[in-house]
Amino acid sequence: MYSRLLNPPKGSFFLFGPRGVGKTAWLHQRLPGALFFDLLDRPTWTALLAAPERLGQMIPARHKDWVVVDEVQRAPEVLNEVHRLIESRRLRFALTGSSARKLRRKGVNLLAGRAVTRRMHPLTASELGRDFDLRRAVRFGGLPLACTSEDPADYLSGFVATYLREEVQQEGFARNLGSFSRFLEAASFSQGAVLNMASVARDCAIGAKLVEDYFGILEDLLIGYRLPAFARRAKRRVALHPKFYFFDAGVFQAIRPRGPLDSPEEIRGPALETLFLQHLRAANDYGNLGWDLHYWRTPEGQEVDFVVHGHRGLRAFEVKASDRVRSGDLDALRLFLRDYPKAKANFLYLGDRRWHDAGIEVMPFEECIRAPDTAFA
Question: How many CB atoms are closer than 10 A to CB 314?
Answer without folding.
Answer: 17
